[in-house]
């Protein structure tokens, strides 16, 4: 008994092999059990999406719409939940045939499962499609870098800084170090930030690898190859990010570890380093005090996330980032 | 907070599959020994985080084995996969599947009695390597699904580090006590008590056992409370702690008696 089902697929094939729904091209094809009947000459190219749609028929929930990011870990897609019509982000991990599930995926899943906070990305589920692990997460269309290109409302910037600190305080209270805080790992929607990418995160342990955090946001102790660091590395990254929000450009743009360390030491020299640099003159004193406490070279002198959220800059509702004149 | 309530802890998949308590204890102990034998080959014990790694691997194994009957999985492959998973989760380890596969094959060749679904592992050739590494990767995937991808496991070693910094002896060598307690701390994973007792209780139990064995008395804390209230908020919780230390010690002794019989 042959059960032949005829479908029309709307698809566009991009150069990198990602298949995206579109109404530009239409291919007719049929399924006969698992055999594909298709007259198209590009059968070879479209077979993956046909198999994908066959799995949709078997209750797979997500359809990829477009690729929105790519990194060493894998690819992120914007996708749609076929059951709820909700737009989600699908993070697909590259799986090695010989090493199984990547360690960054393992850490990200196990840590995100512990972190239920409005300013931390929500892991909806993890699924395996075609033997590849996908994390299903809430979708946001802008990261902090993109956001800062268009929005400079001081009230919202202060709110974003405060909410990021609240999220980091929550992470640290669970004995977790994020280890990769940077503007690209903070997404923003409706002026509310969420922290993402926990692939490098670790539960605090006395011995950890120093090769973490994007170079521009890396704490001095990591640049000096220290193995026994703690939550203070995240606070350094936050100091860099908060100042980047205020300056609208990255603070230290090193090209190597040594260069980064030199840039840091050239700027932060002595207790009142911020007074020696004209670009900080426009900032409110309370804001400067917060930054100074975050950007301490000595990690033991750096403010903790708990202390940061109690800083007078946030307690005083009239304290803004910039001086008023 | 306890991972499982008492009724759930006692209701393992193997017990539902008609294994007696004695049989389960013996198989769990055998699995623990498999892990130790693998570690002799892997030589991870030089790492500063070895105890964290080993305790996490055994915790993962017990969490998995609680849900799947011992009849339904190969304990050698799954123990290798648990060690591999724990190594992956550890910053300081070389976690290539190659190392774990090679250790597994060496183990099988040395033991001669181990088979994989009826297939004897006697040669260290490329086909065997491919087969074993695939089995370990498949087992890893199965374990992750069964434990809900949750590797955020607090192991007793974290509490033990804290205890080592805070406890002193009124009489006797406290360092010697810590050495013995460290051994007990690993041995307490030879059954699945970690599914019921919290990591702090396991830590205190190991220190209590070492203290009794060596007849070393541990001093009260600086606030005048007994040393075993180290992780407690108040007197009420300490009463519960003392009760659970006693309970767990009895459980461990009961398992040892079964293994001797």
Automatic annotation (TrEMBL), chain A:
MF-aspect GO terms: ATP binding; cyclin binding; cyclin-dependent protein serine/threonine kinase activity
Organism of this sequence: Paramecium sonneborni
EC number, as in UniProt: 2.7.11.22
Entry keywords, A to Z: ATP-binding, Kinase, Nucleotide-binding, Serine/threonine-protein kinase, Transferase
One term under GO cellular component: cyclin-dependent protein kinase holoenzyme complex
Top-level taxon of the source organism: Eukaryota
PANTHER family: CELL DIVISION PROTEIN KINASE (PTHR24056), CYCLIN-DEPENDENT KINASE 2 (PTHR24056:SF254)
Pfam families, alphabetized: Pkinase
InterPro entries noted in UniProt: CDK, Prot_kinase_dom, Protein_kinase_ATP_BS
Protein name: Cyclin-dependent kinase 2 homolog
Coiled-coil annotated spans: none
Entry keyword Ribonucleoprotein: no
Family: Belongs to the protein kinase superfamily. CMGC Ser/Thr protein kinase family. CDC2/CDKX subfamily.
Binding site for ATP: 91
Protein kinase domain location: 62-314
Biological process according to GO: G1/S transition of mitotic cell cycle; regulation of G2/M transition of mitotic cell cycle; regulation of gene expression; signal transduction
Known partners and oligomeric status: May form a complex composed of at least the catalytic subunit CRK2 and a cyclin.
Catalytic reaction list: L-threonyl-[protein] + ATP = O-phospho-L-threonyl-[protein] + ADP + H(+); L-seryl-[protein] + ATP = O-phospho-L-seryl-[protein] + ADP + H(+)
EC class (word): transferase
From TrEMBL, chain B:
MF (Gene Ontology): cyclin-dependent protein serine/threonine kinase regulator activity
Pfam families assigned: Cyclin_N
Top-level division of the source organism's lineage: Eukaryota
Chain ranges of the Cyclin N-terminal domain: 15-152
Biological processes annotated in GO: regulation of transcription by RNA polymerase II
InterPro entries in UniProt: Cyclin/Ssn8, Cyclin_N
Official protein name in the record: Cyclin N-terminal domain-containing protein
